[in-house]
Amino acid sequence: MFLRRVMALTVALLLSLTVGLAAASAEESAAFQEVLKERVAKFWVSPNFARDGTVFAITESWPEVGSAPEGFSLHRSTDGGKTWTEVRWLIDNTYRQPEEIASVHDLVFLPDGALMLSGTFSSGEEFLCRSVDSGRRWEKIETNSGALLNLEAAGSNLLGVFRIPRQDLTVLRVSFDGGRTWSDVRTDVIGYDGGLAALDSNTWVAVLDGGKVAVTLDGGRTWHEAGIRLAGISAGLREPGRPVQMIWGRVAGCVEPDGTKTAVACGPGASAQVFISRDLLRWEPIDQAQFELRPKYSASRVISVAAAPGGLIFAGTPDDCVLVSEDYGATWKPVTEGVSDEILDIKSAPAGDSVVVLAATQDGLLRMEYRKQQEAKIPEQQPGEKKQGEGERQPDEMVAPPVKFVVGQKTYRVGDRVFNMDAETFTEDGRTYVPVRYLGDALGTEIKWDGATQTVTLIKNNVTVKLVVGNKVINVNGQSKQMDVAPLVRGGRTYLPARYVAEAFGYRMGWDPAAQTVSVTK
User: Is-contact 149 170, C-beta < 8 A?
Assistant: First the structure.
C-alpha cells in the first residue's frame, strides 16, 4: 500500500511538473526582438500586411541629449518588419536631406496601393505628398488648409485632421478626390496619430478634445458619444502664448471575420484605463486588477493599444511590458521578454496563423510573432488505443446537441450550455435572423467575411456556404438557390436567415411560436 501511494504521488508530481513546464514554455514563446535599432518616431503597417509584408517607419536624428531632433528619415520593410532599408526623400523630383524634414505627421495606405504622407519642411512649409511606387518618389498636393496632423483611409475616401493656422482649433475633414479638396466634418477631433480610427468607409471612432470618444456609423453625418472619458497627459513643455498640448488617448480597432467590429480605447493619464467595445455602442472598462503586474504597486498605465481579429488586444505600457488579451479584454497576461523600455506605440497585423506585433520604444522598434494559446490540445494516440473510426462513430455521425436561439434574447443554448451574445435574435418578414458569428459558432463552422463584396462564407467539412448582404441567393458548394429573404446588417452586426443556413449544413430547424424559439437539430 505504501509503495502504491509513493508511486501515485510521484506520477502526480511528474504530471504537475510537465504541465507547469508546458505552461511556462507557452508564456515564454511570446517574445519581442529588436528589428530597427534607431529612435522610431512613428510607424505604419500596411492593411494588406498578410500579402505584402509592408511597414514604414520614421526615425529621428538626435545630435545630443536634451536637444531637438535635427532630421527625420524614412525606412521601409517588405518582409513583415524583419529587415529595413532607408528610403531617400525624393519629393517633386528633388532629393531632400533628413534635416530638411522638420516633422512627419502621418502616413496612410490607400486601397489603390498609393501612399499619402503629411509633414512639415524645415522652412515651416506644410506638405501633403502622394506616392504610387512604395515611397520611392513623392509628389506634393496643394491643400492650403493648415497642418494635416492625422490621416486615415475610410474606404476609398481620405480623412484628415487639420490644425487651423493662427487658431488653437482642429478640424476633421474628408476628401473624395485623393486629398485635393476637403469638406469639413466636425471641429473637436484631436490631431495626432492614433486619435482617429476608420474601420470602414462609414464607421469611424474619434478621440475628442477633453478626452471624450465619439463614433459615427454613417460617414460623419451623425455622431454618438461613447459615454467614456480618457485621462490625458501633457505632450511636453508649454509653448509661450499657447495652451498646454495634451495627449488624451488613443483608439484602435479591427473588423472580425463575420464583419462585426471591435474597438479599443486607452487613456494614458490613469492606471489601467482601457475600454473595449464589440458593437461600437457599449464600451466596457477592463478589470484594473488584471494590470497590477507587481505586488504593492498600482496598475500599469496604457500608452497605446492595438486590436486583431479573434479577441486579441495588445496594450503598450511604460513598465517594460506589453499586456495581451486573447478574449476581448476579459483576461490579460504580460509579455516582457525582449522589452526593456517604455512602449510608445504598438500596432498589430494578422499574418497566416499568427499576429505580428510591432512596438516602438525610445531606442528602437521591436517585433513579435504572437500565436493564440490553444485552450485544449488533442492528446497523442497511445499504443493500444483505437484509431478514430475503429468501432467508433465519426463526428458527423454522432448525435449533435440541439441548438436554441430565443427571439429578443442575447443568449443561445447548445444542449445544456448557455452562451452569451452581444446582439439579439429577431424575426422579420416571417423569418428568424441570427447574428452570423453566433450561428456559425453554434454549428461549428469556419466564418470568413469579405467587406468589399459584403459576402459571408461559412465552411464545415466538405460544405461551403456563401451569402451576400442584400442578396436573396444562397450558394452551397457552387450551386445557387433562391431564398425569400436576404442577409442584412443591423446595428453594425451581420444577420443571416437561420433556416437556410442550417439546412445547407444538413440540419433541421424547428420553430416554437409560443416560446419564440428556433431549434436546430441534426
Answer: yes
- Which phi and psi angles does 376 have, rounded to 5°? -150, 145
CA 168 to chain centre: 31
**What pLDDT score was predicted for residue 398?**
43
pLDDT of residue 522: 78
CA 370 from chain center: how many Å?
Answer: 14
Compute the distance between CA of residue 165 and CA of residue 412 in angstroms, rounded to an integer. 55
Secondary structure, 3-state, 251-263: EEEEECCCCCEEE
d(CA 384, CA 63): 70
Question: Is residue 344 a contact partner of residue 58, using CB atoms and an 8 Å limit?
Answer: no
Q: Which of 16-20, 479-483, 507-511 shows the lowest mean pLDDT across its residues? A: 16-20
Q: Quote the CA–CA distance of 40 and 52 in Å, as a whole number.
A: 22
Residues in the chain: 522
Residue 201 has which C-alpha cell?
468607409
Element (H, E) at 12: helix 2-28
Q: What tens digit of pLDDT does each residue of 40-93 get?
A: 999 999 999 999 999 999 998 765 555 556 789 999 999 999 999 999 999 999
SS3 112: coil
Neighbours of 222 (CB within 10 A): 9
369 in Cβ contact with 32 (< 8 Å) = no
Rounded Cα gap, residues 155 and 300, in angstroms: 35
- ∠ CA(297), CA(300), CA(306), 5° rounding? 165
- Which three cell numbers, joined as nine digits, stand for 262? 471591435
pLDDT tens digits for range 225-258: 999 999 988 875 545 555 567 888 999 999 887 7
Q: Are 327 and 310 in contact (CB under 8 A)?
A: no
The pLDDT, as a whole number, for residue 168 is: 73
Could you tell me which residues come within 8 angstroms of residue 315 by beta carbon, excluding any fewer than 6 positions away? Answer: 266, 274, 302, 304, 305, 322, 323, 324, 325, 332, 346
Q: Where are the beta strands (DSSP E) in 353-507?
A: 354-360, 365-370, 403-406, 411-414, 417-420, 426-428, 431-435, 446-450, 455-460, 463-468, 473-476, 479-482, 488-490, 493-497
Greatest CA span in the chain, whole angstroms?
90
Task: Sketch out the chain's domains with CATH numbers.
Answer: 31-236+244-370 (2.130.10.10), 398-521 (3.30.457.10)
DSSP-derived secondary structure letter, 402: P
In contact, 302 and 288? CB cutoff 8 Å:
no
Q: Would you state the cell numbers that stand for residue 229, as one nine-digit string? A: 472619458
Given a contact cutoff of 8 angstroms between Cβ atoms, the answer to whether 75 and 87 are in contact is yes
